[in-house]
Protein backbone atom coordinates (compact mmCIF):
# COMPACT_ATOMS: atom_id res chain seq x y z
CA UNK A 1 0.00 0.00 0.00
CA UNK A 2 1.38 3.42 -0.92
CA UNK A 3 1.88 6.36 1.39
CA UNK A 4 -1.14 8.39 2.46
CA UNK A 5 -0.89 11.55 0.34
CA UNK A 6 -1.61 14.15 3.02
CA UNK A 7 0.24 17.03 4.62
CA UNK A 8 -0.06 15.27 7.96
CA UNK A 9 1.69 12.20 6.58
CA UNK A 10 4.49 14.35 5.14
CA UNK A 11 4.95 16.09 8.48
CA UNK A 12 5.08 12.72 10.24
CA UNK A 13 7.69 11.41 7.79
CA UNK A 14 9.79 14.50 8.41
CA UNK A 15 9.46 14.21 12.18
CA UNK A 16 10.72 10.61 12.11
CA UNK A 17 14.17 11.68 10.89
CA UNK A 18 14.41 15.18 12.37
CA UNK A 19 17.66 16.06 14.12
CA UNK A 20 17.32 18.71 16.87
CA UNK A 21 21.05 19.44 16.87
CA UNK A 22 21.05 20.01 13.12
CA UNK A 23 18.03 22.27 13.57
CA UNK A 24 20.06 24.60 15.77
CA UNK A 25 22.77 24.87 13.13
CA UNK A 26 20.26 25.46 10.35
CA UNK A 27 18.62 28.24 12.30
CA UNK A 28 21.96 29.99 12.55
CA UNK A 29 22.85 29.33 8.91
CA UNK A 30 19.56 30.73 7.61
CA UNK A 31 19.63 33.69 10.01
CA UNK A 32 16.46 32.87 11.90
CA UNK A 33 17.66 35.16 14.70
CA UNK A 34 15.91 38.46 15.47
CA UNK A 35 16.90 40.93 12.77
CA UNK A 36 18.16 38.21 10.42
CA UNK A 37 16.70 37.76 6.96
CA UNK A 38 15.07 34.51 8.16
CA UNK A 39 13.77 35.94 11.42
CA UNK A 40 11.06 33.78 12.97
CA UNK A 41 11.70 30.70 10.82
CA UNK A 42 11.57 27.36 12.60
CA UNK A 43 13.65 24.26 11.85
CA UNK A 44 13.39 20.61 12.81
CA UNK A 45 16.73 19.47 11.35
CA UNK A 46 16.57 17.84 7.91
CA UNK A 47 19.15 17.90 5.15
CA UNK A 48 18.12 18.71 1.58
CA UNK A 49 18.58 15.14 0.23
CA UNK A 50 16.30 13.89 3.00
CA UNK A 51 13.66 16.43 2.04
CA UNK A 52 13.90 15.46 -1.62
CA UNK A 53 13.49 11.81 -0.65
CA UNK A 54 10.34 12.60 1.32
CA UNK A 55 8.92 14.56 -1.60
CA UNK A 56 9.61 11.59 -3.88
CA UNK A 57 7.59 9.33 -1.55
CA UNK A 58 4.56 11.63 -1.79
CA UNK A 59 4.35 12.16 -5.55
CA UNK A 60 0.81 12.75 -6.68
CA UNK A 61 -0.19 14.76 -3.60
CA UNK A 62 -3.06 17.18 -4.05
CA UNK A 63 -2.75 20.93 -4.22
CA UNK A 64 -4.65 21.52 -0.96
CA UNK A 65 -2.10 19.38 0.89
CA UNK A 66 0.77 21.30 -0.69
CA UNK A 67 -0.81 24.56 0.48
CA UNK A 68 -1.11 23.15 3.99
CA UNK A 69 2.62 22.37 3.98
CA UNK A 70 3.47 25.80 2.60
CA UNK A 71 1.54 27.34 5.49
CA UNK A 72 3.65 25.50 8.05
CA UNK A 73 6.00 27.57 10.24
CA UNK A 74 8.58 24.80 9.74
CA UNK A 75 11.14 25.67 7.07
CA UNK A 76 11.67 22.06 6.00
CA UNK A 77 7.93 21.53 5.50
CA UNK A 78 7.84 24.45 3.10
CA UNK A 79 10.86 23.23 1.15
CA UNK A 80 9.33 19.76 0.84
CA UNK A 81 6.13 21.46 -0.35
CA UNK A 82 8.08 23.29 -3.05
CA UNK A 83 9.75 20.07 -4.18
CA UNK A 84 6.29 18.50 -4.39
CA UNK A 85 4.85 21.51 -6.24
CA UNK A 86 7.72 21.48 -8.71
CA UNK A 87 7.27 17.76 -9.31
CA UNK A 88 3.54 18.06 -9.92
CA UNK A 89 4.03 21.05 -12.22
CA UNK A 90 6.65 19.18 -14.25
CA UNK A 91 4.41 16.12 -14.49
CA UNK A 92 1.75 18.22 -16.20
CA UNK A 93 4.20 19.12 -18.94
CA UNK A 94 5.56 15.72 -19.90
CA UNK A 95 2.72 14.33 -22.01
CA UNK A 96 1.55 17.68 -23.32
CA UNK A 97 2.72 20.31 -25.73
CA UNK A 98 3.19 23.16 -23.29
CA UNK A 99 2.12 24.86 -20.07
CA UNK A 100 -0.96 26.51 -21.49
CA UNK A 101 -3.10 23.75 -20.09
CA UNK A 102 -5.20 24.54 -17.04
CA UNK A 103 -3.51 22.00 -14.77
CA UNK A 104 -0.02 23.50 -15.24
CA UNK A 105 -1.37 27.01 -14.80
CA UNK A 106 -3.05 26.04 -11.53
CA UNK A 107 0.23 24.83 -10.05
CA UNK A 108 1.97 28.03 -11.13
CA UNK A 109 -0.78 30.16 -9.61
CA UNK A 110 -0.48 28.18 -6.40
CA UNK A 111 3.24 28.97 -6.40
CA UNK A 112 2.68 32.67 -7.08
CA UNK A 113 0.13 32.79 -4.29
CA UNK A 114 2.67 31.25 -1.90
CA UNK A 115 5.20 33.89 -2.94
CA UNK A 116 2.65 36.68 -2.44
CA UNK A 117 1.79 35.37 1.01
CA UNK A 118 5.40 35.24 2.10
CA UNK A 119 5.68 31.46 2.23
CA UNK A 120 8.70 31.33 -0.12
CA UNK A 121 10.77 33.38 2.26
CA UNK A 122 14.37 32.29 2.29
CA UNK A 123 17.03 32.00 -0.36
CA UNK A 124 17.01 28.19 -0.55
CA UNK A 125 13.23 28.17 -0.97
CA UNK A 126 13.47 30.70 -3.80
CA UNK A 127 16.43 29.06 -5.50
CA UNK A 128 14.81 25.61 -5.41
CA UNK A 129 11.65 26.78 -7.15
CA UNK A 130 11.74 30.09 -9.02
CA UNK A 131 13.39 29.03 -12.26
CA UNK A 132 11.97 25.50 -12.41
CA UNK A 133 8.37 26.62 -11.84
CA UNK A 134 7.79 30.28 -12.67
CA UNK A 135 10.75 30.68 -15.00
CA UNK A 136 10.07 27.56 -17.03
CA UNK A 137 6.36 28.39 -17.29
CA UNK A 138 7.12 31.89 -18.60
CA UNK A 139 9.81 30.63 -20.94
CA UNK A 140 7.48 28.12 -22.53
CA UNK A 141 4.80 30.76 -22.96
CA UNK A 142 7.30 33.41 -24.14
CA UNK A 143 5.77 35.85 -21.67
CA UNK A 144 7.97 37.41 -19.01
CA UNK A 145 5.72 40.09 -17.52
CA UNK A 146 5.28 38.16 -14.27
CA UNK A 147 9.05 37.74 -13.91
CA UNK A 148 9.60 41.46 -14.48
CA UNK A 149 6.89 42.35 -11.98
CA UNK A 150 8.60 40.27 -9.32
CA UNK A 151 12.01 41.72 -10.09
CA UNK A 152 10.59 45.24 -9.79
CA UNK A 153 8.95 44.47 -6.43
CA UNK A 154 10.73 45.99 -3.43
CA UNK A 155 10.12 42.90 -1.31
CA UNK A 156 13.38 40.97 -0.88
CA UNK A 157 12.04 37.51 -1.66
CA UNK A 158 9.77 38.52 -4.53
CA UNK A 159 12.65 40.39 -6.14
CA UNK A 160 14.92 37.37 -5.74
CA UNK A 161 12.20 35.19 -7.31
CA UNK A 162 12.22 37.51 -10.32
CA UNK A 163 16.00 37.29 -10.66
CA UNK A 164 16.32 33.54 -10.22
CA UNK A 165 13.35 32.84 -12.53
CA UNK A 166 15.46 34.09 -15.44
CA UNK A 167 17.75 31.08 -14.98
CA UNK A 168 15.23 28.97 -16.92
CA UNK A 169 15.86 31.11 -19.99
CA UNK A 170 19.62 31.20 -19.49
CA UNK A 171 19.75 27.41 -19.32
CA UNK A 172 18.20 27.41 -22.80
CA UNK A 173 20.70 29.88 -24.23
CA UNK A 174 18.61 33.03 -23.87
CA UNK A 175 20.01 35.99 -21.91
CA UNK A 176 17.14 38.36 -22.71
CA UNK A 177 15.14 37.64 -19.55
CA UNK A 178 18.01 38.52 -17.24
CA UNK A 179 18.93 41.60 -19.26
CA UNK A 180 15.34 42.82 -18.99
CA UNK A 181 15.38 42.26 -15.24
CA UNK A 182 18.79 43.89 -14.71
CA UNK A 183 17.65 47.56 -14.64
CA UNK A 184 15.25 46.73 -11.80
CA UNK A 185 17.85 45.05 -9.59
CA UNK A 186 21.28 46.49 -10.43
CA UNK A 187 21.14 49.28 -7.84
CA UNK A 188 19.73 47.15 -5.02
CA UNK A 189 22.56 46.76 -2.50
CA UNK A 190 20.94 44.09 -0.34
CA UNK A 191 23.32 41.15 -0.05
CA UNK A 192 20.87 38.46 -1.16
CA UNK A 193 19.91 40.49 -4.24
CA UNK A 194 23.54 41.26 -5.08
CA UNK A 195 24.49 37.59 -4.87
CA UNK A 196 21.55 36.44 -6.97
CA UNK A 197 22.14 39.06 -9.66
CA UNK A 198 25.87 38.41 -9.88
CA UNK A 199 25.30 34.66 -9.99
CA UNK A 200 22.79 34.96 -12.84
CA UNK A 201 25.14 37.24 -14.78
CA UNK A 202 27.95 34.72 -14.37
CA UNK A 203 25.67 31.98 -15.69
CA UNK A 204 24.93 34.05 -18.79
CA UNK A 205 28.66 34.17 -19.50
CA UNK A 206 28.96 30.44 -18.89
CA UNK A 207 25.84 29.15 -20.65
CA UNK A 208 24.91 31.74 -23.28
CA UNK A 209 27.74 33.99 -24.48
CA UNK A 210 30.66 35.43 -22.53
CA UNK A 211 30.60 38.49 -24.79
CA UNK A 212 27.09 39.31 -23.57
CA UNK A 213 28.36 39.18 -20.00
CA UNK A 214 31.47 41.23 -20.73
CA UNK A 215 29.49 43.77 -22.73
CA UNK A 216 27.03 44.24 -19.90
CA UNK A 217 29.82 44.60 -17.36
CA UNK A 218 31.71 47.14 -19.46
CA UNK A 219 28.61 49.32 -19.47
CA UNK A 220 27.42 48.72 -15.93
CA UNK A 221 30.29 47.69 -13.66
CA UNK A 222 30.77 51.28 -12.49
CA UNK A 223 27.25 51.27 -10.98
CA UNK A 224 27.09 47.70 -9.74
CA UNK A 225 27.58 46.71 -6.14
CA UNK A 226 30.87 45.11 -5.19
CA UNK A 227 29.27 41.76 -4.32
CA UNK A 228 27.31 41.44 -7.56
CA UNK A 229 30.38 42.30 -9.59
CA UNK A 230 32.54 39.82 -7.69
CA UNK A 231 30.05 37.01 -8.34
CA UNK A 232 29.70 37.96 -12.01
CA UNK A 233 33.45 37.94 -12.73
CA UNK A 234 34.37 34.93 -10.62
CA UNK A 235 35.40 32.85 -13.65
CA UNK A 236 37.08 35.63 -15.64
CA UNK A 237 40.84 35.95 -16.07
CA UNK A 238 42.84 37.92 -13.48
CA UNK A 239 43.35 40.66 -16.06
CA UNK A 240 39.64 40.90 -16.84
CA UNK A 241 38.75 40.97 -13.15
CA UNK A 242 41.25 43.75 -12.47
CA UNK A 243 39.98 45.79 -15.42
CA UNK A 244 36.30 45.47 -14.48
CA UNK A 245 36.91 46.22 -10.80
CA UNK A 246 38.81 49.33 -11.82
CA UNK A 247 35.67 50.63 -13.52
CA UNK A 248 33.90 51.01 -10.16
TrEMBL record:
It comes from the Bacteria. InterPro entries: ARM-type_fold (IPR016024), DNA_alkylation (IPR014825). It holds the Pfam family DNA_alkylation. This is DNA alkylation repair protein.
Amino acid sequence: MGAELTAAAVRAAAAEIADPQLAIGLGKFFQARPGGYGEGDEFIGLRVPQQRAIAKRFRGIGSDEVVALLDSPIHEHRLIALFLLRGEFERTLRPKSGPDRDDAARWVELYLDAVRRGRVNNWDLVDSSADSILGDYCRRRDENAVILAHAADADLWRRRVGIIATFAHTKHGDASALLSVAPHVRDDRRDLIQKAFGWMLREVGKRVDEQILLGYLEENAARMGRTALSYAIEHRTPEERAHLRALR
